[in-house]
Amino acid sequence: GKGYPDGLAAQDISFQAKVTAIANYYDNLCNRQDPKDSLTPHESLSLMFGKRQDKFDHSLLNLFIGCLGVYPPGTIVELNNGIIGMVVSIDAGKPLQPTVLIYDPTVPKKEAIIFDLGSEADAKIERSLRPSQLPPKVFAYLDPRVRVSYYFESSEAGSTAERLP
Q1: Spatial separation of the C-alpha atoms in residues 4 and 160, rounded to whole Å
Q2: Mean pLDDT of the chain, nearest integer
Q3: Neighbouring C-beta atoms of residue 66, cutoff 10 Å
Q4: In this model, does residue 65 exceed pLDDT 50?
Q5: What is the Cα–Cα distance from 27 to 21, expressed in whole angstroms?
Q6: Tens of pLDDT, residues 110-161
Q7: Region class of 144: left (phi > 0), else alpha (psi between -120 and 50), else beta
């Protein structure tokens, strides 16, 4: 009931406005004016779910998190073998095993390796990283602000990894 512009109560807020509020808040956490202050997609979802649930429609927030996964596209991750990469797509059936674009300075950026964590039993995400934690050459290679695209497929059709430009 404190929202702009009319201070409407939850039941009076339109579905579209509720969805927009969630997406806008998430985007603002991930893309702050000073990129050093931006949270990772993973951190943003954790904050929204853990400490800001009361600001959003619970069922829509859960759906939003379910669609983006535990490690949403654009999340910079470190794998258990020390490799750094960026999540490029998710499989709703395997939320901890997204498809990751791998940083490898020996491979040209336009030919970057895309690896499906679901295809390797021992590969897993150790932690998510903020872009500010990356050396400039790694950040430039992965360039999360340019490469991220969201592609959703019905769970019946399965998941496919798409090559990014």
Answers
A1: 40
A2: 81
A3: 11
A4: yes
A5: 10
A6: 899 999 998 888 899 999 888 788 898 998 898 765 544 454 555 554 444 4
A7: alpha
Which amino acid is it at 137?
K
Cβ-based neighbour number of residue 134 at 10 Å: 18
pTM, rounded to two decimals: 0.69
- Tokens 């997204």 found at: 98
Give CA–CA dist 93/148, Å, rounded.
21
Q: What is the DSSP letter of 43?
A: H
Task: State residue 95 phi and psi, 5-degree precision.
Answer: -65, -20
Q: Interhelix angle for 15-30 vs 41-51, to 10°? A: 130
Nearest to residue 101, comparing CAs of 61, 142, 51, 71?
Answer: 142
Pick from 115, 80, 100, 106: nearest CA to 147: 100
